[in-house]
Amino acid sequence: MTGQHFQWAGALMLLATMAEARGAAQPARALPAAQADQSLPAPHAAGAADPADPAAVAADVAATGSRASENAVRQAGDAFGSTVGREVIGIYNQMNVRGFSPIAAGNVRIDGLYFDPVVPPSTRISRTTTIRVGLSALGSPFPAPTGLVDFGFRRPGDQAAASVLFAADEWGTLNAEFDAVLPVDGRLSLGMGASLRRESGPDATRETSIGGTLIARWNPAPGVTLIPFVSLLHQPLDDHRLTFQTAGEFLPPLLPRRQRFGPDWVNGSGLDLNTGVLADWQVAPGWLLRAGLFRSSRTRNRQMTNLVRGLQPDRTGTQRVIVDPQLDFAAVSGEVRLTRQIDEGPRRHQIHLAFRGRSGDRRFGGSDILELGAVQIDTPSQVPEPAFNFSRQQLDDVKQVTGGIAYEGRWLGVGEVAAGLQWTDYKKRIDLPGGGVQATNDRLLLYNITVSANITDALVVYAGTVNGLEESGTAPGNAVNRNEALPAIRTRQFDAGLRLALTDQIQLVAGVFDITKPYFNLDAAGRFDVLGDVVNRGVEASIAGPLTPTLSIVAGGVWLWPKVSGPGVVAGPGLGGAIGPRPVAAIGQRLEFSADWRPPFAPGLSFDTRVAYRSSETATVSNRVAVPARTVMDVGGRYRFRLAGNDALLRLQVNNLFDVQGYDLRGAGAYGPIPGRLVQAYVTIDL
Asked: How confident is the model at residue 66 (pLDDT cuts 50, 70, 90)?
């Protein structure tokens, strides 16, 4: 299937779907869920899920510990990105929203509260993840230009429950997971989980991990909930994948699959830890105090970057391994938010006062660069392990405090308005290994305003703007300043769109956006630095819901027109060293269609598919090289049954059904192979 054919097919499917859905039922009132509930939102609780609300079902699954009901297609509210258990669906994900990474930008929430993750939460503590952009960001008092990643926290419920999961795939990966909820009494409930994984990756790299989680939900007094938690993941063995850098402005030859290149000693180990506490206090009628305090850390022992450099079309190059001494990254973050709610018949007013803060420390650098000589990429490397010679490491420290006030007004059947002001103070200090300090200080007034209007019972339109002070991540492994924390950047966004209720359960959401940020990438000297500014303008669309009682779909697309500006930017693809008009990793079009069908003649059985198209991807700073467009199809099935009186689920999947080959872009001019066809299965039992 060619990319052009897929685009036409995708458009026809969307139009046909809209026409069928429009005629299936009369349109319902397209109101945000919060407008339908005229009471102050209470802290999350289990056992209250509305079967018609996919988000509520997903939250209920997370609270009870059951997993046999997990189904991303049926539980996703839109196509803009959701995670339910092991499954990810949508055109966006944690690392890519509207062409940028909300994780790198620091736009992360746990149950709506600010969180600065060194390590994203595991599925032991977060069973669902939602990407909040456009209208879906309403209800989040302080949005961000790159969108928000909101991890739905797993709050132990009031009923005892447990689940076990066993998974395997044809490459030899084995995985076991256990989750349980144990109520102690009417005020205390415990959640616990454990995982054991032995992974064989698409390039035959190995990883073993052991994880554990403990959560407590305690109600010490009426209206007060405290939820402390700790979650850790130990990796005794972590092979480091091989990245290929070409000798010039051209794509590499097709890269080997299922080959562990080595050498055998290119691996490390590490420990990830997330711990913290969430608190809810219904201070008085109409007053809610929420707070979260978190610590996220990662320790890596002997981390390595494995590179083949100067790769030629004849599949030869030279191997470089960059070895790091122990690396330590840690961040403490949190938020306190007081909400006052006033209800006036069909109108609701919410005023939020919030204080956020974070403090991050990183120890990095001191690397030893090993040149292992000429290699042929189809022949594994057998170089013996040398002695390492580390140098002095660098330290960096980031501190940021933010205070804000926000207003949300909702008028049932009329519309919404959300506005906020924040004052942020940002400080970063890097102690250089040769002596001296590099310091960055910034203070900024941040604002956001979004207005939505109910044009009809079925149609809502919205428009908004927001600015931000966001992180820009760290320099990649192929940069001379690898692992260096980059400075915070000023960003801004305008967006507008609509939501149309096609039926009482199917919604079409579409929007346009314009985002401006500084553009970071490799300069002519190989340093990852600011090269100019980038503007991402685009259109996004989503349609999701059940077409019939047996068939549910999630379909979406994003069309992006990014543009780089600044000194040295040329109008078209330039010579090596020039800066082209498109940013590295720019993908102009993404289309995705997912469906889940439950045949009425086979109770308990369902079939699902996912078809994802992406246009060509800009691969070098000069824009002279692009990763070709590709379409990948996954298929799968579920069988729900009873085992010894317990709900159980057998899940079979085939990823990349037609074994499409292609390149995974890992930085400017740096590539890896995409995974080939993979058959995998798991069984989960709710006890």
From this structure: low
